[in-house]
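Sample entry (405 residues):
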Amino acid sequence: MQYKAISADGHVNEPPNLWVENLPEKMRDRGPRIIETPKTKGHAWIMEGQQRPSVMGFSSMYFRSSKRFDRASLVEGFKQIKDRGVRYEDLFPGSYDPKARVEEIIEDQTDAEVIFNGVGTVWNGIKLCPDKELSLACFKVYNDWIASFQAYAPERFICNGTLPTTGLTDAIDELRRCKALGLKTAQLESYPSGNFTDPTPEDDRFWAEAIELGMPINIHTQFFFPAGDLGSKVDAEGVSDKAIRAKKLGIDVQAGSFPVILWRMIQSGVFERFPDLALVGTEVQTGWIPYYLERFDDSVLRNRLEWQLPLLPSEYFRRNVSVVYIVDEMGAANRYDIGVANIMWGPDFPHSSSAWPVDYELGREVLERAGCSESEMERIMWKNCADLYKLPYDVPATTAVGAAA
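Predicted structure, serialized as tokens:
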């Protein structure tokens, strides 16, 4: 097969009755479910232990773009819900129906797609659930469903399993189960031990297992999104209360951001001990990386006696890490300082940052404007993704000269 475009970042919205119908009987009335918000009559997720519902936001609502900054289409989308909240019937049907999803990505001129969970939907409630047995069961129900979603069109869908935050043994067991279900990759919602702030020595068992199973590990932007109990209101002075809410829950949101995760994994020697580990930072963009690596390397070279690892941070990054962007002019212009082989395109469909159904055209336009060769565009738009997830393809006629840069 010869690809034209593989998106390294797409999302589902979990079916509204997923957990109500599939959790063990004793848990069904305690697990995630959809409610109607009393004032706006929109849909929101709630479950046991969750104080604030996670409302269905505008991010996956159906609307068409015709260009990159298509504000008119966005405004028209808002008009549909100006007097009420977002409901499931407002969403792209392909966000939970695989048949519709195939039709949607084909219209977007995308051949295949790496798919993640709904991030801002139900997941903070599941991760922060005080009942670990219930939490683990929720992860398992989702993974069963996403495997069935992938099975509808395995030539087009590369679906992530979502790994539990209930402890190292659970994470390893579920990683193995995801592999057995036919999934090619999995996303972390915490470090494997369940720690939300720091990698731990016991995590090494997980990294070793990921290599043994041949599964790249994804981190989608950060461990916590501002939804549910970590959702945010802004006061009259424009101050967000998200940090206050997080502090009350004992959560350091910043520690779970990808730049911090990357720094801690490099400096703690994870990639030195596991040189074959493949880590992906999805929807983290790329323009910041050259300066980040420059400063990281500089700090090491200035304090060499304190750095006990044989490689520089930038060398670990280029060997072990891939990053996914939506639209990133700065990253495209500085692709050699990042590494062409480390960059993947992913338009984030069906979230509002996507420009469906013109994502492919805009993706090409950004790379062309940056002066990318055809072979570099092949790598960024599909080939790096195909190589990482071991998708078979016909060898293209061109070779990316800058791929090893």
